[in-house]
Amino acid sequence: MSEATLDRGGARFDVVAFDADDTLWHSEDGFHAAENTFCDLLSPFVADGVDLRSTLTATERKNLPTYGYGVKAFGLSMLEAALSVSQGRVTSDVMDRLLGVVRELLLAPVRLLPGVAEVIVDLARDHRVAVITKGDLVHQTRKVTTSGIDHLFDHVEIVLEKDPESYSRVLREFDVEPHRFCMVGNSVKSDILPVLEIGGHAVHVPYHVLWELEKADHPVGHGRFGEVESIAEVPDWVRQGGE
Amino acid sequence: MSEATLDRGGARFDVVAFDADDTLWHSEDGFHAAENTFCDLLSPFVADGVDLRSTLTATERKNLPTYGYGVKAFGLSMLEAALSVSQGRVTSDVMDRLLGVVRELLLAPVRLLPGVAEVIVDLARDHRVAVITKGDLVHQTRKVTTSGIDHLFDHVEIVLEKDPESYSRVLREFDVEPHRFCMVGNSVKSDILPVLEIGGHAVHVPYHVLWELEKADHPVGHGRFGEVESIAEVPDWVRQGGE
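Structure tokens for the assembled complex are given below, as produced in the milestone run.
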């Protein structure tokens, strides 16, 4: 920490909250591998040139309002896409393999991203530290409780959708003003834009894979928005008051 | 309300919370119908005497720690059971029908149980009224927001598991002491026993179908436990102070 930062006197934020999947730990790479498995398993059943990955994404997009986020939703969409894209020719053996993929995703051990534990320990010294994640209640809870760092968090919120209304509700629960709140995450659409909209600060930390349905333009130049290369840079950004 | 009740002066409870599925609205009958469809669709693929319903329940029980509660979990278990019990002979047409059953369950309109709206309106006059339900975040939220009575609730909590720890956490969030809290629900295992354990009051209102995995003995004679025939009797029970 620089002297200039120390001179500011007191923390700039009361609560620093982190997205979980692809911010604290790997997630999308698991889905990506599952999609590859889907494509490999289904390719014998479709004509050359059929874009299996796009078919799967389209099925997920169609089902999102009904199924929501998470592995179980992904799994049901994958099974549906397998039946439809193969026009029913997919074998029960392949269907069984796809169910196995779902189970593996749900049971995969948490793999923390580099530097995460140190960053949370550091920030927890002078901030309340939170997780705000969307997705499946049982799976997200399992990941948090088996992450090895859950004891460091003051709050864990699993929300249905990361929109301005959800963040406003969570901030009321945390009893924190938006200008004293900073969100850290890899999705501009879910972690950055809605937080800026309600008057909070937000830092983008990229992950090497981004889900098609999470893509959005970065709010470059926004006064309460920051971009860093890795989570290790977040404490400095936070202590310099989001500048 | 009787004069004797009015004489008690002030409400006995600060918060009256309701389980949702099979307490406020029909749910298990939909699962029951889905199980029947599963049995009808799979019976051509199994030998006479195979108990398809038990196979499905066993698969659900096995998957509960991984999948959690709710329709998507049920759906994945149903697809797995279809593949395994038929030894892979189930057709893709049947698999597609089973996925349709899942979608129908998720999209089925909420059917309030008789008297529910009146009871909530009545109790909301002099209590904070809450919903505490477990299950799938997106589905439970959809049901609450389309129930037509969600504006009457001060709190809506969707929890992973209805155990003493969860209830304790929720009561802290509600800022209510256990002895000032009353839970109303159809499952002795989920709505009654854990609430009594943490010092709260609980009223059992039966539903005509109970999921195999929710069965438990009633705590007959417990001082903070009540049993009524229908939800319409709950306001009197609550105002008579749980006696």
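The CA atoms of residues 4 and 240 of chain B lie 8 Å apart. Chain B has two domains: 3-25+111-239, 29-107. Further analysis is deferred to the final report.
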